[in-house]
Amino acid sequence: MDSGTGEGSTSFTDDYETFISTTDVDLLKRAWRNEKAAPEILQYEAALVHRIKEQIELAEQNVEASEADGEDPLTMSLYQMDLDRTQFLLRSYLRVRLQKIEKYIFHILKTDESLNRLSDEEQTFAASCGDDLRAHLKETVLSKLPTDYNSELKQSAASEEDDMVPAPRLDSFVICKARQYISGLDFEPEYSHEITEMERDLLTFVCYKFIKKPLENGKIDLV
Amino acid sequence: MYARKAYELVKELAQCEKGHLQQFNEDLFNQVIDQCTQHFLELQALFRKKQEENVAMETRNEDHYGALVHHLALLRNKRCLMAYVYNRTETIRSLSWKVGFELFELPEEIQEKLSLPEKNYFGKHSAALQTYMADVGIDLNVDMVPPKDPYIKVRVLDDMGEGILLSNKTANLARHSMHFLKRTDAEQYIARGLMEELIG
Fold this sequence. Notes:
- The complex is a heterodimer.
- Chain A is mainly alpha-helical.
- Chain A contains nine helices and three strands, in the order ααααααααββαβ.
- In chain A, helix 3 crosses helix 4.
- Chain A is flat and about 70 Å long.
- The two termini of chain A are 19 Å apart.
- The longest helix of chain B has 37 residues, at 62-98.
- Chains A and B meet through helix 5 and helix 8 of A and helix 2, helix 3 and helix 5 of B.
- Chain A: Residues 70-139 form the GINS subunit domain.
């Protein structure tokens, strides 16, 4: 999903009003909510984060400039509060992502799909995070175990798959709301029996993997 | 019963309140490791016996199942050991978010509970986090709760010395004194238990 244009292509035609009144902060709030509620890591909103960072910088300059001009303290405090809230959103968004990377580090490092969703900085972080954890596990446990049993990914050399990697549970349930009417075509064909359609703005309690695709296409928000 | 010791190890972990750490149980841990070595020796002995008796490896005789039991016991032990260490690292990682990046910032009580490799791991992981924050140019360790008001009232709980810089102003933060500070300035001290927020 391309972050910058996703908003325009979906709601431009049917709801021009919401389109022009949607600010980057709203978009960030949405990305943050989705990220918080989704069990797995989602696509990094590179363009959005970049814009927000610029806006924060601009707002900081404005606050400083009006402070120097002797602007009314109450107005100043309101500006500051608004700025603080945006900063909190951004920090929390990045934080939630890092914590997910920490939690599912081995899974993310071995699946390209997840790895490609990270920003460059996050990939660097993931690489060193994985190395550190592997080194620590090796030092405390694995180096003391017999050969054939000393992998951090497999239980023993006899396991065919990596069966010791904590992975996000895609079959956990989430609460979501469709941004528009979603027909059967928007879902993965393999789940066509479980889920057929979703009304707009209707709160739904559903298994995450069923709505993974429309979520990635920006048609659903998690709550 | 095989793998009972490992079970005790995990039980110790489970009984501990979430986010808290107990002393790394070196003694029990090493006992489980020894058991693993023992299982492996017996496993190999059984395989050798089969070879000497010229029985094909696939034959399902009593030695095969004996070896299987040792193999499974070993796996169980390994999983328990890994769970013990892995879950502790999760708590350790949360420390660098909640308390601070440097080992000396952690209260004594917590430092005592960590084993030497765990201390090293904490240091390395914190360094990775700091590198990330430097790359992005955003400090992620402030603003842990959504801000209601940019300013909060705090009470200083410990002698922090003079001359601490808060938003380019020095402040005299004597013990028990109360201050009205920017939330972002105060948060790091609250996390380290040097200040408390006054609510209401």
